[in-house]
Design a protein that fits this description.
This protein is of the alpha+beta class and about 80 residues long. It has five helices and three strands; from the N terminus they run H-H-E-H-H-E-E-H. Helix 2 crosses helix 4.
């Protein structure tokens, strides 16, 4: 699931954007990427289900942060494959 989630360019960009901000509100991603709210929500769901991001609702907004352990584990797996 991790590599499938990372196979999409938009999801990679979203992950990178969240990692630069440490925690980011979903509401900020819509104007940043010029995509619809449902499209952003779908990409975030895929990233969350793959364990790559953590999400927390605060009032009406949902904030996301990168799950560094999961990302590092994926990098280790790729490194092992590459030899």
């Amino acid at each position: 699931a991790v590599f499938k989630a990372l196979s999409d360019e938009t999801r990679l960009r979203i992950l990178k954007t969240i990692s630069h901000m440490s925690t980011l509100c979903e509401c900020n991603l819509v104007p940043e990427f010029g995509l619809t709210q449902p499209t952003i929500s779908y990409h975030l769901k895929v990233l969350r289900e793959a364990g790559l991001i953590k999400s927390e609702r605060k009032g009406q907004w949902v904030y996301h942060q990168v799950n560094e352990k999961a990302v590092l584990a994926a990098v280790r797996r790729l490194s092992e494959i590459a030899g």
